């Protein structure tokens, strides 16, 4: 696929996903066929498609909540890797992240005996497949600057289109409530937007073409608008951290033009909300500065304490947790913990949580060990800040963000090293 054809691929995917949202499973079958053909042609194209549909995965499922096009795409990717790249398959099977995830699969058997359900075991197997896929990506595309940049761009376009579908369906009235992707919560769209913003910022600093920089500035502006429309407090916290970093870089004399450009875009975006969308601006102010019942956590502090008490109820729950299947019902709560750390601890205990953390840490270590022994990289912070009030750590989305952040960190480190020695 020529570079110039990638925008057309994005447009076609957007139309197909929107048609699926309107018509149901017939278009889903066409998408499966399209994914199959793309995977047969190129794994790079396949991964670009996966990143684009990731923000839209709530739409891309069968009506009864069955198989997801995302899982189908990942399986096709792995199958075709077996067909013509056995060396990378072998390396991925022996990689530390995958081996730790396999240990977690065996660990999950305890929940089958505890709840008489295979749900947690299936979740663990899905997690392990995702980690294997991530390991494949690392070995195949490590230090591939063009591929990594295109991946981040396609992910960001996917975020924008996922926010556009509700507006197309419901009209512009959708932006006067908390904007969300179809089938997902506003917080989910906020998490995606925050990650997209920080990655675009670093990619702009990484590339040198004026036309590509201009395109990324436009992407940044649109994603900022989308994230703001979610009215999510976690998004605004992530936004503040990003801009503190931008201002710090500006004061240190780094990326002067980039800092001025992004700060200007931010002022323009907030001016739009103040002068053209005053109702939305008032709602945002109220959510942040005048929260319901004076509780900015929206009663989540009490919820976290309740789940923490369940976690520390006895020695068994501390070390092994309760499993995730019907967790809220079994503990007597009406909603999930809304804290990714507490929910992971309550679900899998200390032993299971350690295995999950080690899996992600080993991904970061494997990718970055050749360029740095110490990592302070803003995307890693944004991932955790934006996910803090989300669900547990086992998700393909979380792992993929960790991988993309680590790969981008390597590119930036190499660029800086070359600049110093150049």
Radius of gyration: 22 Å
Number of strands: 0
Mean pLDDT: 82
Q: How much strand content do the residues show? A: under 5%
Number of helices: 20
- First-last Cα distance: 33 Å
- Secondary-structure-based class equals mainly alpha
The share of residues in helices is over 70%
> Ranges with pLDDT <50 over ≥5 residues?
none
Largest sheet: none
Order of helices and strands: HHHHHHHHHHHHHHHHHHHH
| CA-based shape | globular
Structure description:
This protein is mostly helical and about 425 residues long. About 75% of the residues lie in helices and about 0% in strands. It has 20 helices and no strands. It has helices at about 5-25, 25-40, 45-55, 70-85, 85-95, 95-105, 110-115, 120-140, 145-170, 185-205, 210-230, 235-250, 255-275, 280-290, 300-310, 315-320, 325-330, 340-370, 380-385, 395-420. Helix 18 (about 340-370) packs parallel to helix 20 (about 395-420). It is globular and about 60 Å long.
């Amino acid at each position: 696929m020529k570079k110039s054809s990638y925008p057309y691929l994005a447009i076609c995917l957007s139309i197909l996903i929107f048609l699926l949202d309107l018509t149901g499973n017939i278009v889903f079958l066409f998408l499966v066929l399209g994914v199959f053909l793309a995977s047969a042609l190129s794994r790079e194209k396949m991964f670009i498609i996966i990143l684009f549909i990731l923000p839209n995965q709530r739409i891309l499922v069968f009506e009864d909540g069955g198989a997801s096009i995302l899982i189908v795409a990942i399986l096709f990717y792995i199958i075709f890797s077996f067909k013509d790249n056995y060396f990378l398959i072998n390396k991925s099977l022996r990689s530390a992240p995958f081996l730790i995830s396999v240990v977690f699969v065996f660990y999950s058997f305890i929940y089958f005996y505890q709840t008489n359900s295979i749900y947690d075991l299936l979740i663990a197997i899905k997690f392990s497949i995702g980690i294997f896929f991530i390991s494949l990506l690392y070995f195949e595309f490590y230090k591939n600057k063009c591929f990594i940049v295109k991946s981040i761009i396609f992910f960001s376009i996917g975020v924008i289109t996922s926010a556009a579908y509700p507006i197309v369906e419901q009209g512009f009235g959708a932006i006067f409530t908390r904007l969300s992707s179809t089938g997902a919560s506003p917080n989910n769209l906020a998490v995606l937007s925050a990650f997209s913003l920080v990655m675009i910022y670093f990619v702009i600093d990484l590339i040198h073409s004026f036309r590509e920089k201009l395109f990324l500035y436009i992407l940044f502006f649109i994603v900022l608008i989308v994230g703001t429309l979610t009215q999510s407090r976690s998004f605004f916290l992530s936004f503040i951290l990003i801009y503190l970093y931008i201002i710090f870089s500006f004061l240190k004399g780094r990326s002067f033009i980039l800092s001025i450009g992004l700060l200007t875009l931010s002022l323009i975006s907030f001016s739009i909300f103040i002068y053209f969308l005053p109702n939305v601006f008032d709602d945002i102010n109220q959510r942040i500065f005048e929260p319901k019942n004076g509780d900015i956590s929206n009663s989540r502090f009490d919820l976290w304490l309740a789940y923490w008490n369940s976690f520390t109820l006895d020695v068994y729950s501390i070390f092994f947790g309760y499993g995730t299947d019907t967790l809220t019902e079994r503990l007597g709560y009406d909603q999930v913990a809304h804290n990714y750390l507490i929910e992971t601890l309550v679900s899998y205990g200390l032993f299971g949580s350690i295995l999950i953390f080690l899996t992600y840490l080993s991904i970061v270590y494997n990718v970055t060990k050749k360029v740095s022994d110490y990592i302070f990289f803003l995307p890693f912070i944004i991932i955790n800040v934006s996910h803090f009030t989300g669900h547990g750590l086992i998700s393909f989305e979380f792992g993929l963000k960790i991988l993309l952040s680590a790969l981008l960190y390597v590119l930036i480190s190499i660029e800086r090293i070359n600049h110093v020695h150049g």
